[in-house]
Design brief:
mainly alpha, 2 domains, two-stranded antiparallel ribbon, 8 helices, 2% strand
């Protein structure tokens, strides 16, 4: 879906940092999935994850969000493999990834903090571009998110060349169907796990009571 997204192809046709952070974000996701499923190597995998996260953070500010995948992956692996100790199987791996990510990408943010008094450099961004002078309410943020959805699928030029309206109708319907399918899948998994736990509990009760 992403490879043939018109907006993604349009962005990749120019020199920008969005392409690099997308590649690195995909790499972090792949490594996180492997860590969640198998735990992988206790030292090599966290170092690889930290390096990828650090490079993503250097490519774009949005790359900082990729670190959220690291604790999520190890938490899933630890939770599904219990009982296991917290330190070697969960906390150590997350801490090692964080340290490596800070060593790889932290220098840039340290430089921003020393030069601008803000590690993200957002004060300078706010001074150049128009921003809200007051806090935005959650409802306003959701409206803005919904209004920006067409730009994910295709707004070209300098965000001033639009596709036909039917195209945005189709993509909105696609997004709604994807969210519905994801919700149904999550509910099915939850129901199956609840049923399994109830069945195990009933079997344990039968054994304790000496029932066949």
């Amino acid at each position: 879906m992403l490879a043939f997204n018109p907006q993604f192809l349009f962005s990749c046709a120019s020199v920008n940092n969005d392409v690099m952070v997308t590649v690195l974000g995909a790499a972090v996701l792949l490594a996180s999935v492997r860590a969640a499923s198998s735990g992988a190597h206790p030292y090599r995998t966290p170092v690889i994850l930290g390096t990828l996260v650090g490079l993503a953070a250097l490519s774009n500010l949005s790359g900082l969000a990729t670190f959220a995948l690291v604790p999520s992956a190890y938490l899933v692996h630890w939770w599904c493999s219990r009982p296991k100790p917290l330190w070697p199987d969960l906390l150590r791996s997350i801490l090692l990834s964080a340290v490596v990510a800070a060593l790889v990408g932290g220098g840039w943010y340290l430089r921003n903090a020393l030069s601008y008094g803000n590690p993200l450099g957002m004060r300078n961004y706010a001074a150049i571009f128009a921003v809200h002078d007051v806090s935005v309410f959650p409802s306003q943020a959701l409206i803005g998110l919904a209004e920006s959805l067409p730009s994910y699928w295709g707004v070209f030029g300098w965000l001033n060349v639009l596709a036909p309206e039917w195209y945005y109708v189709v993509t909105r319907a696609l997004v709604l169907m994807a969210c519905l399918g994801l919700s149904l899948r999550a509910f099915a998994v939850w129901r199956r796990r609840v049923s399994y736990r109830l069945r195990r509990s009933a079997q344990g009760h039968s054994r304790r009571c000496g029932l066949p």
